[in-house]
Design goal:
The complex is a heterotrimer.
Chain A lengths: L2 H23 L3 H21 L3 H32 L2 H18 L4 H24 L8 H11 L4 H9 L1 H20 L13 H24 L7 H17 L11 H20 L15 H25 L4
Helix pairs in contact in A: 1-2, 2-3, 3-10, 3-12, 6-7, 7-8, 8-11, 8-12, 9-10, 9-12, 10-12, 11-12
Chain B lengths: L1 H23 L3 H21 L11 H32 L12
Chain C lengths: L6 H21 L4 H26 L2 E4 L10 E4 L1 H25 L3 H23 L3 H19 L5 H32 L4 H7 L4 H18 L8 H7 L2 H27 L4 H28 L3 H22 L5 H33 L10 H4 L1 H15 L5 H15 L3 H26 L13 H16 L4 H9 L8 H4 L4
Antiparallel strand pairs in C: 1-2
Helix pairs in contact in C: 1-2, 1-4, 2-3, 3-4, 3-10, 3-13, 3-18, 3-19, 4-5, 4-10, 5-6, 5-10, 6-8, 6-9, 7-10, 8-10, 9-10, 9-12, 10-12, 10-13, 11-12, 11-17, 12-13, 12-17, 13-15, 13-16, 13-18, 15-17, 15-18, 16-17
The chains are: A mainly alpha, B mainly alpha, C mainly alpha.
Chain lengths: 321, 103, 497
């Protein structure tokens, strides 16, 4: 084995740790968020090095992209929120915050030292356990390989996600919807995106949005054979939605009621409906009848992509429609 | 093989740094960042170790689990950030108050 | 008797009815009230169907998608899961009937309450039915996110602060659990509990997995010293939410811990397997005493009830050291009785507190002002719930404590026996403190708002449930034994079907 790949891995790993440390300890919040997004991008590279292209795509689209956008949006709302409220109150708030912040940005030094020591002991134990695991084991890859033909897709990761462990994926879609319902239930969540659109951005979005929708469709389709799939496609779709929104496009009022909610629940609803309907054909729960796996998975993925895109865009925008 | 070891160790490091940040930092946005760093570390262990078998294709099952985990982490982050903003607009604070149970 | 629906169908319904009802309530908020109550009735029906099936045909294993473990995800139901599903169905129905009355004054909260609560219910049922460690992780996350969002529903500064802390605690707990799942998967090549039970061996991997998973789940269960997040969260949430959190949500992480202990870790032997139960027992005993004393000191009713929960969680952990030697079965059955009784009684008490809050506009204990005369049904519910919490006969709490004492006596563990008795005395103290003030007129007479009857009766019926549980032994006892959850590892009886 040549030394070059090892050197690259070492550099990547050290960069990860350095970025994480800086992201968590930088005094400036904006810088912290930017460093965190960089961490997500480097993680994407690490996943490529580990031959996990799906995770790399998801990490970059969701871990760095969507999470980063959510963090930046939250940061933007944290800062002007103060300047919009009553001047006097703001000044009081800010001084109060400054005073307490200096005293309490972090725990006291003795406590920090104690926590650090405890964590080092914990990591040593965890490291020992991981070392014990250092016997090559195939895991379940042989089993997945053996039954891939029955799954309706040719790509193992998609087969696990949408068929072998489809029940998890159904609930994962529910988690996304749940997060949005939770965000909407917070009556005070402020709005974003009501500012005037930038003309240049508007023009760019009109060009980009159709392209992104095409990319999303491609990602769903390719997921059956290669890395890709509903979650990556959904995040591209969500990004398209955000861009359109930022460039001034709005859902018409009549569409923000139940039609929007219908799009949001479509992924879970279609998945659950198909999963239950098969019981009527003498199949187990979520067990597709022979020959029907492929169209069923495609239908689920298309519905899921639409919902994921809509949910992610709605999460970014924040306030209720 | 060796890259797996390097990245497993990096995963451990991320878990440690994230836990430290979660316990030590007071600003809620930093706590949310720390939670994401911890998750990334766990994902590196979960899917990274799937690459132990030399030469073979990586085990797809933990990869699918990590994909699920990433989506869950994004959902949790979105809710946590929205809650932080709601707390901020209700109290003006972006930290947790320790003795908030006596009104 | 030939049944139209079999066990697998009932299990499916238990997850999909609340899930689809959550979607429907989100889509059509105007119909949410009756949709929610309808779903609650259907879930109770499905639970009874499943219980009937388990009693006649033994434990149930369902291969989702037909793949079967280790490739696919399996569902598993035995006496332990059935008992908790039953408690969830009863408390869930009570709270669902109560909620429309409570939220009538807060339509904005009501709109989000239904989808969040039904998703929480999906996670609870899914968790009790899952045999797959990673699927359980997803369920834990659905549970944690929905519980935190429900806590924030009141929108008050205290509520948001408590919800935010609860969310972070819950996320950290799930992360620790997932770390354990990662270690176990790579150590033994499966996440199915039954298969893991066959394959797991003593060693660094199993020990580390046990420690991180236990730490994460203890954090979520709020065992002392991890209880810090619980009183503010349970004390500041809307009353029906407090009832759900105290009665149901903490039981789910306790159940998972118990399940992992029984099926994976208790048989490993070694120093840790010997020490951990003793440590959990000591923490449990400390929680009983400390939580009860704190409850006595509270001036607000909901916080008093919340600290009482901290104490009652402690009892559940006394089972770990007491189940050690031969008395195994009895100690676990005692713990399960206590968990069920606490679920019904505590839900009744929080709903009663909600009635008093709605009536008087506050929940200061000192200003209850003859509530007994003005809300007799509600006070009856509170006292009946309190009787079960104290452990007086003939309640479900009494049966649980009696069995726990029996187990402690036969093993000569006098210390634990004294803690059980002392906890009961302290509980009597805080329950009668409330009752005393409810009989006392305050200097300035308080005006009261009307409290709808559905709110009073749902609290009262749940309290009756806690008392009736004391008479249920002939029927509940065989159910608890289905699949022998407290005996052999499930792998050995897993082949039953």
């Amino acid at each position: 084995m040549s030394l070059l790949p090892l050197a690259i891995d070492l550099v990547l790993a050290l960069t990860l740790l350095w970025l994480a440390w800086r992201a968590l300890n930088s005094p400036d919040l904006f810088r912290a968020v930017v460093l965190f997004i960089a961490l997500g991008l480097v993680l994407g590279l690490v996943w490529v090095r580990l031959d996990a292209v799906d995770i790399a795509l998801a990490e970059i689209a969701l871990g760095a992209g969507v999470t980063g956008a959510l963090l930046l949006a939250a940061l933007a709302k944290l800062q002007p929120a103060a300047s919009q409220t009553d001047e006097l109150q703001t000044a009081e708030l800010q001084t109060a915050e400054l005073q307490t912040d200096q005293a309490a940005v972090m725990a006291p030094i003795a406590l920090r030292l104690f926590i650090a020591l405890l964590l080092l002991a914990f990591l040593a134990g965890l490291g020992f356990a991981v070392w014990q695991l250092w016997v090559p084991a195939p895991g379940l890859s042989n089993l997945v390989e053996a039954r891939l033909d029955e799954s309706g897709v040719a790509y193992p990761v998609t087969a696990v996600l949408l068929n072998f462990r489809g029940y998890d994926t159904l609930l994962e879609l529910a988690v996304l919807l749940l997060a949005l319902i939770g965000v909407w239930s917070l009556s005070t969540a402020p709005h974003l995106g009501d500012e005037e659109p930038e003309p240049a951005l508007a023009a760019l979005s009109r060009l980009l949005a159709p392209l992104m929708i095409l990319v999303a469709a491609y990602l769903v389709w390719v997921g059956a054979y290669a890395p890709g799939g509903a979650f990556q496609a959904g995040s591209v779709l969500g990004a398209a939605g955000v861009l359109l929104r930022l460039s001034g496009w709005r859902l018409s009022l009549s569409a923000t009621g139940w039609p929007l909610r219908l799009v949001l629940v479509l992924g879970v609803a279609v998945f659950a409906f198909i999963g239950l309907a098969v019981i009527g054909f003498d199949q187990p729960l979520l067990g597709y009848p022979p020959g029907w796996a492929k169209p069923a998975i495609l239908a689920i993925e298309l519905a899921a992509t639409l919902s994921i895109g809509a949910i992610l865009a709605a999460l970014f925008i924040g306030g209720r429609p | 093989m060796s890259s797996v070891l390097v990245f497993a160790l990096a995963g451990l490091g991320l878990i440690g740094l994230g836990l430290y940040g979660l316990l030590v930092q007071r600003h809620l946005l930093r706590k949310v960042l720390a939670f994401n760093v911890i998750s990334s570390g766990i994902f590196l262990l979960l899917a990274g170790l799937a690459r132990r078998a030399p030469g073979a294709e990586p085990d797809p099952v933990p990869q699918a689990m990590v994909l699920t985990g990433i989506v869950v982490a994004v959902a949790a982050t979105a809710l946590a950030l929205a809650m932080m903003l709601a707390l901020r607009s209700a109290t003006g604070r972006t930290r947790l108050e320790d003795h908030g149970d006596e009104d | 008797m030939p049944m139209l629906l079999n066990g697998a169908d009932w299990a499916t319904a238990l997850v999909f009815v609340p899930l689809l009802a959550a979607l429907a309530c989100f889509l059509v908020p105007r119909a949410a009230d009756w949709l929610g109550v309808l779903a609650a009735l259907l879930i109770l029906l499905a639970t009874l169907g499943l219980v009937q099936d388990l009693l006649s045909d033994g434990p149930l294993r369902v291969a989702v998608g037909g793949w079967g473990a280790p490739l696919g995800i399996d569902l598993w139901a035995d006496g332990l899961s059935a008992a908790l599903l039953l408690m969830t169905a009863l408390v869930g129905l009570g709270v669902s009937v109560y909620a429309p009355g409570y939220f009538a004054a807060h339509p904005q909260q009501q709109r989000w309450f239904w989808p969040l609560w039904l998703l929480l219910w999906t996670a609870l049922n899914g968790l009790y039915l899952s045999a797959d460690l990673f699927n359980l992780y997803v369920m834990l996350e659905v549970l944690g996110l929905s519980a935190a969002a429900l806590t924030a529903l009141s929108g008050s500064a205290t509520g948001l602060n408590a919800a935010m802390r609860y969310l972070l605690v819950s996320l950290l707990g799930s992360a620790a659990y997932l770390l354990g799942v990662a270690l176990l998967y790579h150590g033994y090549g499966t996440v199915d509990i039954a298969l893991l039970g066959q394959r797991i061996e003593a060693g660094a991997v199993a020990t580390t997995a046990l420690l991180v998973m236990a730490a994460g789940l203890l954090l979520k269960t709020a065992l002392l010293p991890f209880h810090f997040w619980l009183p503010p969260a349970h004390g500041s949430a809307p009353a029906p939410v407090s009832a759900l959190l105290s009665a149901l949500v903490i039981k789910a992480s306790f159940y998972l811990l118990l399940r992992l202990w029984l099926d994976l870790f208790s048989g490993l032997g070694g120093l840790l397997a010997a020490l951990l139960p003793e440590l959990l027992g000591l923490l449990g005993a400390a929680a009983v005493l400390w939580g009860s004393v704190q409850a006595l000191r509270q001036r607000r009713l909901k916080l008093l009830i919340a600290y009482s929960t901290v104490a009652q969680i402690g009892y559940l952990f006394l089972g770990f050291p007491l189940a050690g030697v031969q008395a195994e079965e009895v100690a676990w059955r005692a713990v399960l009785y206590l968990a069920l009784a606490h679920g019904l009684a505590k839900a009744a008490m929080f709903l009663s507190a909600g009635n008093l809050l709605q009536f008087a506009g506050h929940d200061r204990i000192a200003d209850l002002d003859r509530a007994v005369q003005r809300l007799p049904l509600t006070l009856t519910a509170f006292v009946l719930g309190g009787i079960s919490i104290m452990g007086l006969p003939p309640s479900g709490g009494f049966v649980g404590k009696w069995l726990l004492l029996e187990s402690a006596f036969t093993q000569g563990r006098w210390g634990f026996a004294i803690v059980v008795l002392l906890g009961g005395v302290l509980a009597a103290g805080y329950v009668f403190k409330v009752v005393g003030y409810a009989f006392t007129p305050t200097e300035i007479a308080q005006e009261g708002e009307a409290v709808p009857l559905r709110m009073q009766w749902s609290a009262l019926l749940l309290a009756f449930g806690a008392i009736l549980l004391g008479f249920s032994a002939p029927w509940l006892w065989p159910l608890l034994g289905v699949g022998d959850p407290f005996g052999l590892p499930i792998a050995e009886v897993g082949a039953a079907r």
